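User: Predict structure, ligand manganese (II) ion.
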Amino acid sequence: MILEKLEKFNPITIQCHDNPDADAIASGYGLYCFFKDKGKDVRLIYSGRNIIQKSNLRLMVEKLNIPVEYVKPLEKGFNRVKGLLITTDCQYGAGNVTRIEADEVAIIDHHQIEIDDVKLSHIIPGVGSCSTIVWKLLLESGYKVTDENGLGTALYYGLYTDTSQFAEIHNPLDKDLMEGVEYENNLITLFRNSNISLEELEIAGVAMLRYSYNEEHRFAVIRSHPCDPNILGIISDFLLQVDKIDVCLVFNETLDGYKISIRSCVKEVNASELASYVTEGIGSGGGHYEKAGGFVSKKLFSSMEHCLHAEAYFNNRMHEYFDSYKLIYAKDYEADITDMKMYQKKKLPVGYVNLWEVLPVGTPITIRTLEGDIEIVVEEDLVVIIGIKGEVYPNRLEKFNRSYTKSEEPYSYEANTDTAYIPAIKVRDTGAHLLLTDYAKTCISSGSVNIYAKPIDSYVKVFTAWDKDKYMVGKPGDYLAVRTDDYHDVYIVEKAIFGKTYMEV
Ligand SMILES: [Mn+2]
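Assistant: Predicted complex:
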């Protein structure tokens, strides 16, 4: 546990990135409260050329009594602190944080890993905010996060601003923070309504005049002048309302990279998938079907073998995206099995939970997994299976008995999956939180399902027979599969999963 290791040091200085945003301040404040509680001599600081000016951030610091201090960078040489220095929401040595010397350094961050030579690092890319990471660390260490010291509100607001007002949330940990933390709604409303300055209003206006539009694929790309990332979301939400625009990408340049915001209103383009496509190899991106966001690291961007400026790059990448995939609508698709081989499901242990044994029949619940939320009501014959990627499928008892055999082996999530997030049940009425794995037993697939399958050589989007509104995406190397008893039942199986779960007959 990273906090246990950091706890050994004293004094401790926590440093936000320069021009700190709400997430840097909130995550830093979380760490501050934790170490203060441990009796440490602790400071929360930021440096760089500017002191905090934005109204929402000044209000946040003032109303929540966050003891954040500004440290002026020295003209010659570096500042120095004793003991441990932790950079939060940024990585020690990266371009967006002023270098301060210390006896020991540590990193807590949620951006793409840029600095890999700091041993005391806890970086989880793909989480919506650094506040989420700190919140999780505090919970795990037994520190109770409440709103008595304003910490709950700070963390909530940190996540809120880093995910375009929660619109771009996709990691289940973020949802847990959003729903689980105590916060003061009045203050959030106050901060939210002091979010844009008059200068930024003008930036948004100017940005909208300078769009580039692709008629063939009906997408628009806009580069905005430097502004708060929230403004990108505002511009893209507005843009999508234009009748000729189905998909848009809005971005701006920051000190260390490009922040992007993506929107889509057509079912053939999942904004979340497009965000991860656009940022592949040079950053991270994701979100929802209609709204998503991402970040591209400048260092990685400039190490690529192209000499495009960012706007041309994003335009090209959007083009590539639209040209790269084939669409399959399972309902009207007749699979050609001539070049496919027949496979059988391997007999693998997976987990199952009889929901009626956990909660009373009729209880509305949300099952939260890495792949998303499933909303169901407990029924007397509803079983859920926990697959090898931590994914969860509801099943009727009768179908379950046909396809699986129960095993006496105790169930172990770690042994059977390679995903860190443990699927959980949220009871919608009471907010109670139960780990699905605490109730799981082991079963083994009986191997009765046969499929035809072949590896694909290009991107494919499949609208399956059971979901006509959302597609599954297959990348080169993944498998296109079709059931031997129903050629319309077409779907994609990821390459890694395919090898683990199927064998040739
Ligand atoms: Mn952040």
